[in-house]
Amino acid sequence: MKLVNKVAVVTGGGSGIGAEICRAFAREGALVAVTDMRREAAEQIAAEIRDAQGQAFSWGFDVSDHATVEDAVCKIEKQLGPLDIWVNNAGISRVVPFLDCSDDLWDLILNVNLKGTFIGCQVAVRRMLPRRRGVILNMSSQSGKVGNSHYAAYCASKFGVIGLTQSLAQEFAGDGIRVNALCPGVVFTPLWDEQTKDYARKRNIRPEDVRSYLEEKIPCGRLGTPEDVARTAVFLAGDDAAYITGQAINITGGAVMH
To answer: What is this structure's pTM?
Structure first.
């Protein structure tokens, strides 16, 4: 197992990609703090992991509220031990024409996706520095590599996550802290389910045709899965990736190659 007794915090761990990363980390021996704004969702995943003989506990907090995150991390370390891995996975997305994007929607998406990642990184780095080791994984997207219409706020946030990742990787590499970003392509999760109708409207196709429309654009011929992303997260979190930092790893089936 690659992460034995490593203490790992995963935000947005109550569903989708975050939940699968929690499961994968636990299978590799990590002590997992499953966190989500919806505490009950986090506890459901944590209980599932415990039922499978893994080690997981749940916490609920808003990633864009610095004081709340700080308080939760103090409790996590008190219960599980010093922090080894932090995954900034919590995120939101909306398919909205640019001229219909309100200030409030822009602020909401940037606050969760980018400010939330900033807060998570800052809280994690402060705890990793004294031990001179640690891994931070930030969830970006293929939309952090290539802009996409009707996703202005989302793209801005995910491009920002990559810039933040590179900056921190440079600043803290000498302190034994590695920082990388994950850039998944289309992965059908509850987040995608919520926006399928809006995406269909954007492309002028039927909602039931969205999946096949997207698959046709992927060289590998299929959509990504949460497991695809989780396997990459396990690799980057472990010692096999000890010389990898500052990277934004595409998990797109060839749809994006830079």
So the answer is: 0.96
Task: Compute the distance between CA of residue 33 and CA of residue 41 in angstroms, rounded to an integer.
Answer: 13
* 154 is known as an active-site residue: yes
Percent of the chain residues past pLDDT 70, beyond the cut: 100
Is the domain defined by 7-186+225-251 classed in CATH 3.30.379.10? no
**Rounded alpha-carbon distances, angstroms, from residue 109 to 51, 59, 91, 113, 245:** 34, 22, 8, 6, 26
Residue 94 in tokens: 């909306």
Among residues 151, 154, 199, 243, which one is catalytic?
154
Statement: residue 250 has pLDDT above 90: yes
Answer yes or no: is pLDDT of 192 > 90: no
